[in-house]
Design goal:
The structure holds two protein chains of two kinds. Chain A has helices at 2-31, 52-58, 398-401, 423-433; strands at residues 39-42, 64-67, 70-72, 76-79, 87-90, 98-101, 115-120, 126-133, 138-143, 156-164, 169-174, 179-182, 185-187, 192-197, 208-211, 214-216, 220-225, 228-233, 236-238, 242-247, 258-263, 266-268, 289-291, 294-296, 302-307, 310-315, 318-320, 325-330, 347-349, 352-353, 368-372, 380-382, 434-436. By secondary structure, chain A is mainly β. In chain A, strand 23 and strand 24 form a beta hairpin. The longest helix of chain A has 30 residues, at 2-31. Chain B is built from one helix and eight strands, in the order αββββββββ. Chain B starts with a helix and ends in a 6-residue tail after the last strand. Classes of the chains: A mainly beta, B alpha/beta. At the A-B interface, strand 7 and strand 9 of A face loops of B.
């Protein structure tokens, strides 16, 4: 019995070992990539793939779709983790050589193509060197997986892109964690050129960078509802309705917007009155809501707006030539569910305002380099250029409204009580952005009537935007 | 003879002429009822609950003035229903999405971008058994 047992034991071990060898061999083999990364070439004539979508449908993880110059009238959907790391690259000498055109673009089921490229639950997607234009929603739209609540789309790269005249956003990342938009140009969007929003709270945040871009002639340069962990640096935001606008709204998940940095940017001439009939850009938004008989519109003439955000740093920017305010911070004037759209813990430091006095901000009624509504707490101002102006209130001291950093404990830094003592500030805001719904002549274009306009010294060869004819100002 | 034959032919033609429309009317495919419409807006579905008969269709119609991007995704479904069959594309306007409901039970839909605000239920009634 013992011998028999031993024999069987030895045989079993030998067999096991024999089985293990192929197992290891298989293991070794499986360590190698199962899928050799392929390149799919797309062109209008003479290629196997004539649409970008047909190539994307064939592609798998970390494959490359190379798109030759031409106009592609389609909306491309990149779906699922099996396409993580996919690269879609225009091969032209300039981004404008490969155009994804939204006019007349349809999806396979006959729906309007809403986006030039949509990434649905794809990580590390790379899109480079092409133009997306005229889509009824967005140029590029990356979002978390639509099948699950799980966030995906982290680590994206959007580089050397042009986003032009898309109805909502140019380059748009929603519910993503970490990524980069760089060396891109956005103009003509009905909302913002760049948007990072609905960012989940993260214990170890993955940051998103927006850098070395130009955004002009959009309703907003940057917008991000409930935007977090975004470093916006070394960009030019100019000639938009407003320049950089992180914000908190109930409509999107993961309130509030928090922990962002706006640094080393040029933020100037954001006086684009797209409300005028002669503008070729119109806002897609219905505005900010109503207060009594007043409809509250998106403001124009402002460089930076921190709208109900917590913990943003605005530092070392050059901010000039914005007629209403250079930089501002306020809470949602209508309040919101849970009152978390509150302006707090934001720091404005080291900014150079008004270009040494040659191109001032705030040359308008109640205008200034800096403006706050007096709500919230923990906001502070330090080492901004000498001579910076701060819009005063008759009801709160300058030291309370615009304290130095670090901000004293609440409630001393603001009123600590939304709109309490700072009612005048609230009125400044409402009077500026509000249109009287009982008077059809009182449209949002009237905001321009508050401005004292001035000429702008040349900057980087850019030209300031001016829509003519201007508004017929009400008495 | 010829005249009699002609009369027979004419009678036959008349019979066919009468018969075709009648039989055509009888055999015409039953026109399916119009689908129920659900509006997809910023940021809502309307209505948020719908009761339909087995075999009925629902069409989700995106408002043309939408600003935000939305979709319709089946979150909970009766056993045997493939969720992936009930998933629209994601966009702001101009999306076609119609689905036929053949399995009775409760179907819960969400917009995966606005889960807290956009949810709705479609209840498909069981057919009444005839005794």
């Amino acid at each position: 019995m013992a011998s028999s047992f031993r024999t069987r034991y030895v045989v079993a071990i030998a067999l096991g070992a024999a089985l293990l060898v192929p197992a290891f061999a298989t293991g070794t083999a499986s360590a190698k990539p199962k899928h050799r990364h392929k390149t799919f070439v797309v062109c209008k004539h003479g290629c196997k793939y004539r649409t970008i979508q047909s190539a994307v449908d064939k592609a798998r993880k970390r494959d490359t779709v190379r798109v030759k110059p031409g106009k592609y009238v389609e909306g491309v959907l990149v779906k699922g983790s099996k396409r993580n790391g996919l690269r879609i690259i225009g091969t032209g000498k300039k981004p404008g050589a490969v155009v994804l055109e939204g006019k007349n673009a349809k999806t396979a089921d006959g729906s309007l193509a809403n986006h030039g490229i949509e990434g649905d639950g794809v990580d590390n997607l790379v899109i480079k060197n092409l133009k997306v234009t005229h889509y009824v929603a967005n140029g590029v739209f990356l979002h978390g997986h639509s099948d699950t609540a799980k966030s995906a789309c982290h680590g994206f790269l959007m580089k050397d892109l042009i986003a032009a005249f898309n109805r909502s956003y140019g380059l748009f990342a929603f519910n993503c964690t970490g990524g980069r938009i760089t060396r891109s140009i956005g103009y003509g969007q009905g909302d913002s050129a760049w948007y990072i929003g609905a960012t989940p709270q993260q214990a170890k945040p993955k940051w998103t960078s927006i850098d070395h871009t130009k955004a002009y002639r959009n309703v907003l340069g940057y917008s991000g509802t409930n935007s977090k962990y975004v470093n916006i640096h070394d960009n030019d935001f100019y000639n938009n309705g407003a320049g950089v606008v992180p914000n908190t709204l109930d409509s999107e998940p993961y309130e509030p917007a928090g922990h962002g940095i706006i640094q080393n940017n040029n933020i100037f001439w954001n006086n684009f009155n797209y409300y005028l009939p002669a503008s070729n850009v119109e806002t897609v938004s219905g505005g900010l809501g109503e207060a009594g008989d007043l409809e509250l519109n998106y403001p124009i003439g402002i460089g930076v707006i921190l709208f109900g955000v917590d913990g943003w740093k605005v530092r070392n920017n050059k901010i000039f030539g914005n007629y209403k305010w250079g930089a501002s911070a306020f809470s949602d004037p209508l309040g919101n569910d849970g009152f978390d759209a509150e302006s707090k813990n934001n720091k404005f430091t080291g900014n150079k305002m008004g270009r040494n006095g040659t191109d001032l901000n705030g040359t308008s009624i109640d205008g200034a380099d800096f403006w706050v509504d007096g709500s919230g707490s923990g906001n502070c101002f330090q080492n901004n250029s000498a001579g910076s102006t701060f819009d005063p209130s008759a009801y709160a001291t300058q030291a309370n409204l615009y304290p130095a950093c670090p901000a004293p404990d609440p409630p001393a830094s603001g009123t600590g009580n939304s709109f309490g003592d700072a009612e005048q500030q609230f009125d400044d805001l409402i009077n500026y952005v509000g249109s009287d719904t009982t008077n059809p002549a009182d449209g949002p274009e009237q905001m321009e009537c508050d401005w004292t306009q001035h000429s702008h010294p040349a900057f980087k060869g850019y030209k300031p935007v001016k829509i003519t004819p201007g508004p017929v100002c009400l008495p | 003879m010829i005249r009699r034959a002609l009369i027979l032919v004419a009678a036959a033609v008349a019979l066919v002429a009468v018969a075709v429309p009648v039989s055509g009317a009888l055999s015409a495919p039953h026109k399916p009822p119009k689908p129920k419409i659900v509006a997809v807006g910023d940021d809502y579905y309307a209505p948020v609950s719908l009761k339909i008969h087995k075999g009925a269709r629902v069409r989700w119609k995106w408002n043309m003035d939408n600003f935000n991007t939305h979709n319709v995704v089946l979150n909970k479904a009766p056993r045997g229903v493939k969720k992936s069959k009930f998933r629209s594309s994601t966009g702001a306007i101009g999306i076609l999405f119609v689905r036929k409901f053949t399995v009775p039970g409760n179907y819960k839909f969400v917009c995966t971008l606005h889960r807290a605000l956009m949810q709705m239920t479609v209840t498909v009634k069981r057919p009444v058994k005839k005794h």
